[in-house]
């Protein structure tokens, strides 16, 4: 009943609004298809411009592509942008972003990501909130490489920038119901339009996603790898005279739990993949939301913008750490029940020039305040808080920035930017230790530690327009990520000993942006060399059963990225790309005592690629046949810097590819019915292999989801 009620309510949102847009839709009529690839407008540099004019490695996913790909959340886009991915909610590294081989496994409150997610200009402070739903997303922009000048902290690897649909002069909306294997039910809808013409607009969106898990706990009687999430977004737009005022709010509640790590050695093994045996239920949850107020005032010579935002997030996780169906004698059943809470406030003031002259600029100031409260107790033999650590971290960040373009000639443009950042942090940490068997953690009395740093991040670019359709650029940019602490269960003896230093990166990049055959073919190529100093590395040490964070002395990333879009006929669009990425340490004496200099990063494939095709064929009056297919590939990756082999199992995964398909029909009034299959060949991908946390000698594997198939019914107006 709850599924039926949710589906009826949200689809009703679109149906109820549809009549309001009928007149506008009829007046618009049908524009003749020229066959050219539509211009992609992005706001990656805080102003609207063609993606072909941006001197940076950027890829955009439009609302139409999101629908064609049949994706629901940001992590579903994995593989569609070579050199960029995001871990799904509920997984052990939920929300972790990987760009150009840099993966930030943000396991605790003291470690921050090297890539960020922004929604309508608001920074999402904690990675567990990164996996945004796409129901009302107008565009996703993926920026690869340091974005320090305009985006600031935590963008040494890059950023995802999401823009939601805003209410305009006429009503628009979309909605769908998706029913599939493993009792899948997804329903989502949005509607946006004017309440008072030229003065007040409204946007509402909501979504609900459910799907049974594919991994069974044969003892606890629960399935993992399931989906259980709902959320909503809302926006009011007020447009008096030269003002634009947007009040936005959002909420999400995600109770889905990714598949658990499966023991593949020791007596904890359960026969058959996708089965585990635990004496404990292991739920996960993410609940959060926020509000933001964006105010823009047209001053004539420039636009003044203010973005004020407040957000909060709560993440919980329960895990059976001994991986046995019954308590084992040495440890008598160890589990953890973690809770992380985050609150943040951010304020940005920005001035953007409106001039069409040779000089244009964006300048502003930024403030960020975040408070993290982390509670990480372990239970032993059913006794809670047997040993634990508690941490509270407060961060204040202040920045001022400017980015300016100057047209030296009609074809040559110089871009220069600078960002100055001051970051201050405070740690309040306490650990209750425990010593027995393989466990030996000291007690650390409550202690306070402080950290502060300052950084200057410049950007310089030269862009040359060879022809109206061929542009080249060279860029040098810097990125910065502040240091912090590793407030995890540790064998160090004080808060000062878990500190690590700031990391910095210099990026040297050259690109060519081209369009041919009356803009029916787009080919974009980027080459880059990135130098890292003090790269922050998270490692698990099996010998001491602890996670540590250290700074690699130096690291280098060399690579190239290719993007191709072609529309040879009016009914066929082909798009894709590929990347080569050589990410390796040049100087790294690790916390394990090993010298990893010259070694490839973990979770960093050297090769990745993507190809997709969309066919739209008329098959009757006001009826089109839709066919979509896409293939995503990644080459070999390593899971562990030590390249450890435990009981004959290498800590690596070979290359793999995933195939997705969709076939459907669409009517002239925007109703669509399609059949889909994700992971059509049922490829079971090994995403991680690691040792257990307690030093029991258990090797643990994590696999991706099996094939999913179903039907999708949607409407758009």
Highest-level CATH class: Mainly Beta
Can you name the CATH architecture?
Beta Barrel
Number of helices: 2
Instruction: Compute the average pLDDT.
Output: 88
Shape: globular
Sheet with the most strands, sense and barrel status: 22 strands, antiparallel, barrel
Number of strands: 46
Rg from Cα: 25 Å
Strand content range:
over 45%
Q: Report the CATH superfamily.
A: TonB-dependent receptor, beta-barrel domain
Structural class: mainly beta
The CATH topology turns out to be Maltoporin, Chain A
Low-confidence stretches: 1-32
Counting structural domains, the number is: 1
Distance between the termini: 28 Å
Helix content: under 10%
Short summary:
The protein is mainly beta.
Describe the model.
The chain is mostly beta strands and 717 residues long. It has one domain: Beta Barrel (Maltoporin, Chain A), CATH 2.40.170.20. It is 5% helix and 59% strand. The chain contains 2 helices and 46 strands. The strands form 10 sheets. The chain has a 22-stranded antiparallel β-barrel. β24 and β25 form a beta hairpin. The two termini are 28 Å apart. The N terminus is likely disordered.
